[in-house]
Amino acid sequence: MARAELMKKLFASRGRDEEFRTVAEQIINEEERKNNRVLARSLRRSLDEGPSQPARPKALAPLIPFPEAAADFIERIEPTRNRQDIILSRENVRIFLGLLREFQSGDSIRRRGLPVRSKLLFCGPPGCGKTLCAELFASELGLPLFIVKLDRIISSYLGETATNIRKLFEFARTQPCVLFFDEFDALARARGEDGEHNELRRVVNSLLIFIDRVHPKGFVVAATNLDQALDPAIWRRFDEVVWFDRPDRPMITRFLRMRFKNVLLEFDPHTHLSALDGYAYAELERLCLQAIKTSIIDKRKSVTERDFVAAIADERRRKRRTSRIDTI
Ligand SMILES: Nc1ncnc2c1ncn2[C@@H]1O[C@H](COP(=O)(O)OP(=O)(O)OP(=O)(O)O)[C@@H](O)[C@H]1O
Question: Which segments constitute the AAA+ ATPase domain (predicted)?
């Protein structure tokens, strides 16, 4: 017979179709391993064709019509960019290709009773590709991208929150998609609030239970700029943690090559690498676009060194100002 823990898990997964199936597969695999082939075959038959089958479409049918029911806190984004539009470290490329391949072989993996990695935590400073990468995931897999407005869910805690979290659950369970939680550290901050905000803490805990229990038909991705703010209780809920760092010089070189691919230049931007140290990709993107725009405004066909240097100076001024605001 299957081990007691598996039986307990099976009972606990009642009503959660995906989870039930995963545990059932584990039980079947265990029986196969023990050479109880007849029992294993008969269990598999019951799982595939048995009386639970008619209930499957109902359990998987969309329970909430999107966008009406969830539109207040979920926004649909059409992925427009692809893998040529992102610069990733070699390590991150390896992680992403691994995740994509695992997702694509998801059915076979689940059939063997093994879970598929689908909950990802993206960490790193602003403007280094967390959102862009979620977009690419969606476009590579042909899935829609949905951004969860966490602040709306958290601030709606007077009354509607429980309903909203339930809607979110149903949504993620039924809609194959990449579900993206930006500024996930807001949860950690809210979790640390003091006693008078018990209600808020309950909301946060419900969301964490959501992350625990949901078996998305795509990916749940949470992003944070403040990985220090997340406690271990949050980290361990994710199957994979990926870091997005500011680019070093070789990565800046790759970025400039990509950004100016179809642009006529009168200079070599790589001679300015030292002036670009410490910038995030979003800042590099902005300054490159600014240099290109200057040449357009001046009705020139090519970008000059002067355009580029002026754009760097502008970005530096902006960075100085914003870092002063951040420390206030
Ligand atoms: N790794 C990258 N390669 C190429 N372009 C990038 C990269 N990272 C960011 N960009 C550019 O910067 C823009 C903003 O990046 P993105 O929104 O992904 O940052 P983020 O890490 O999610 O930031 P935030 O934490 O502020 O939400 C992108 O749309 C893209 O133009």
Answer: 116-248
CB 70 within 8 A of CB 64: yes
CB 59 within 8 A of CB 14: no
Per-residue confidence of the chain (328 residues) as pLDDT tens digits? 557 878 877 887 776 666 677 778 788 878 877 888 788 888 877 776 654 443 333 333 333 445 455 667 788 888 888 888 999 999 999 999 999 999 999 999 999 999 999 999 999 999 999 999 999 989 998 888 999 887 777 765 556 667 777 777 777 778 888 999 988 877 766 666 555 556 667 777 777 888 888 888 889 999 988 777 677 777 888 999 999 999 999 999 999 999 999 999 999 999 999 999 999 999 999 999 999 999 999 999 999 999 999 999 999 998 887 766 665 5
What domains are defined for the chain?
4-60 (no CATH), 74-243 (3.40.50.300), 249-327 (1.10.8.60)
Distances, alpha carbon 126 to alpha carbons 133, 145, 190, in Å: 13, 20, 20
- For residue 117, what is the DSSP state? P
**Cα 308–chain centre separation:** 34
Q: Best mutation site among 121, 243, 285, 290 for ligand 1, i.e. most ligand atoms within 8 A of its Cβ?
A: 285
Strand partners, 221: 120, 180
128 lines ligand 1 (CB under 6 A): yes
CA of 132 to the centre of ligand 1 (A): 5
Nearest by Cα to 153 from 189, 194, 193, 187 = 187
ipTM over 0.95: yes
* The ligand 1 atom nearest the CA atom of 225: 25
**Residue 141 · residue 263 · CB < 8 Å:** no
Quick one: CA torsion of 65, 71, 75, 77, rounded to 10 degrees?
50
